[in-house]
Amino acid sequence: MIRKFHNIFEFYKSTLAVNLAISLLSFLFGGFSEFILTFMTFGFVVSIAIREVRRKEDYLFYFNNGLSKVQLWIFSLLLNGISVLLFSCVYVFILKTR
User: Fold this and answer.
1) Confidence band (pLDDT; 50, 70, 90) for 26?
2) Rounded (5°) CA angle 63-22-90
3) Between the CA of residue 93 and those of 16, 20, 35, 52, 89, what are the distances in Å?
4) What does the angle CA 43 – CA 46 – CA 51 come to, to the nearest 5 degrees?
5) Nearest Cα to Cα of residue 62 among 1, 8, 2, 16
6) 62, pLDDT greater than 90
7) Phi then psi for 74, rounded to 5 degrees?
8) How far, in Å, CA of 92 to CA of 98, rounded?
9) Which of 38, 46, 70, 88 could, after both became Cys, cross-link 23 (CB 3.0–4.6 A)?
Protein backbone atom coordinates (compact mmCIF):
# COMPACT_ATOMS: atom_id res chain seq x y z
CA MET A 1 0.00 0.00 0.00
CA ILE A 2 2.79 2.43 0.86
CA ARG A 3 4.57 1.48 -2.35
CA LYS A 4 1.46 2.48 -4.33
CA PHE A 5 1.36 5.89 -2.63
CA HIS A 6 5.05 6.33 -3.35
CA ASN A 7 4.49 5.45 -7.02
CA ILE A 8 1.55 7.87 -7.25
CA PHE A 9 3.66 10.63 -5.73
CA GLU A 10 6.52 9.92 -8.15
CA PHE A 11 4.10 10.15 -11.07
CA TYR A 12 2.73 13.42 -9.70
CA LYS A 13 6.23 14.86 -9.27
CA SER A 14 7.03 14.00 -12.88
CA THR A 15 4.04 16.01 -14.14
CA LEU A 16 4.54 18.90 -11.73
CA ALA A 17 7.46 20.64 -13.50
CA VAL A 18 5.58 21.17 -16.78
CA ASN A 19 2.40 22.13 -14.93
CA LEU A 20 4.18 24.73 -12.81
CA ALA A 21 6.05 26.18 -15.80
CA ILE A 22 2.82 26.75 -17.74
CA SER A 23 1.01 28.04 -14.67
CA LEU A 24 3.79 30.47 -13.77
CA LEU A 25 3.46 32.03 -17.21
CA SER A 26 -0.21 32.65 -16.55
CA PHE A 27 0.71 34.10 -13.14
CA LEU A 28 3.10 36.55 -14.76
CA PHE A 29 0.55 37.72 -17.31
CA GLY A 30 -2.67 37.42 -15.33
CA GLY A 31 -2.25 37.09 -11.61
CA PHE A 32 -2.88 34.56 -8.88
CA SER A 33 -6.41 33.53 -9.86
CA GLU A 34 -5.23 32.73 -13.39
CA PHE A 35 -2.35 30.75 -11.92
CA ILE A 36 -4.78 28.62 -9.89
CA LEU A 37 -7.12 28.12 -12.84
CA THR A 38 -4.29 27.16 -15.17
CA PHE A 39 -2.64 24.91 -12.58
CA MET A 40 -5.84 22.91 -12.09
CA THR A 41 -6.89 22.68 -15.76
CA PHE A 42 -4.71 23.58 -18.72
CA GLY A 43 -1.32 23.00 -17.11
CA PHE A 44 -2.40 19.62 -15.79
CA VAL A 45 -3.80 18.51 -19.16
CA VAL A 46 -0.68 19.63 -21.01
CA SER A 47 1.63 17.86 -18.55
CA ILE A 48 -0.37 14.63 -18.94
CA ALA A 49 -0.36 15.01 -22.74
CA ILE A 50 3.41 15.50 -22.82
CA ARG A 51 3.84 12.46 -20.62
CA GLU A 52 1.52 10.49 -22.93
CA VAL A 53 3.67 11.33 -25.95
CA ARG A 54 7.19 11.29 -24.54
CA ARG A 55 7.14 8.74 -21.71
CA LYS A 56 4.36 6.34 -22.62
CA GLU A 57 6.43 3.32 -21.60
CA ASP A 58 6.42 4.42 -17.95
CA TYR A 59 2.77 3.46 -17.67
CA LEU A 60 3.80 -0.20 -17.92
CA PHE A 61 5.82 0.22 -14.71
CA TYR A 62 2.83 1.69 -12.89
CA PHE A 63 0.49 -0.97 -14.32
CA ASN A 64 2.82 -3.70 -13.06
CA ASN A 65 2.59 -2.10 -9.61
CA GLY A 66 -1.21 -2.21 -9.67
CA LEU A 67 -1.99 1.33 -10.86
CA SER A 68 -3.93 2.11 -13.99
CA LYS A 69 -3.56 5.24 -16.08
CA VAL A 70 -6.90 6.59 -14.90
CA GLN A 71 -6.01 6.01 -11.25
CA LEU A 72 -2.75 7.92 -11.71
CA TRP A 73 -4.59 10.82 -13.37
CA ILE A 74 -7.30 10.99 -10.70
CA PHE A 75 -4.83 10.87 -7.81
CA SER A 76 -2.67 13.50 -9.54
CA LEU A 77 -5.71 15.74 -9.94
CA LEU A 78 -6.48 15.29 -6.24
CA LEU A 79 -2.89 16.16 -5.33
CA ASN A 80 -3.22 19.22 -7.57
CA GLY A 81 -6.28 20.25 -5.56
CA ILE A 82 -4.36 19.88 -2.31
CA SER A 83 -1.47 21.89 -3.78
CA VAL A 84 -3.89 24.64 -4.82
CA LEU A 85 -5.23 24.82 -1.29
CA LEU A 86 -1.69 25.14 0.08
CA PHE A 87 -0.75 27.78 -2.51
CA SER A 88 -3.90 29.74 -1.68
CA CYS A 89 -3.24 29.60 2.06
CA VAL A 90 0.32 30.82 1.59
CA TYR A 91 -0.83 33.57 -0.78
CA VAL A 92 -3.51 34.79 1.65
CA PHE A 93 -1.05 34.64 4.54
CA ILE A 94 1.45 36.75 2.59
CA LEU A 95 -1.23 39.31 1.74
CA LYS A 96 -2.41 39.58 5.34
CA THR A 97 1.09 40.15 6.71
CA ARG A 98 1.67 43.15 4.45
Assistant:
1) very high
2) 95
3) 23, 21, 17, 37, 6
4) 125
5) 8
6) yes
7) -65, -45
8) 10
9) 38
Give the amino acid at 31: G
Mean pLDDT of all residues belonging to the chain? 92
Burial of 15 (0-12, 13-18, 19+ CB in 10 A): buried
pLDDT at 50: 94
**What is the b/e burial string over 80-95, where b = at least 16 CB atoms within 10 angstroms of the residue's CB?**
beebbeeeeeeeeeee
**What is the band of 24 on the pLDDT scale with cuts at 50, 70, 90?**
very high
Residue 56's pLDDT is: 87
Burial environment of residue 14 by CB neighbours within 10 A (0 to 12, 13 to 18, 19 or more): middle
Q: What's the distance, Cα to Cα, between the start and end of the chain in Å? A: 43
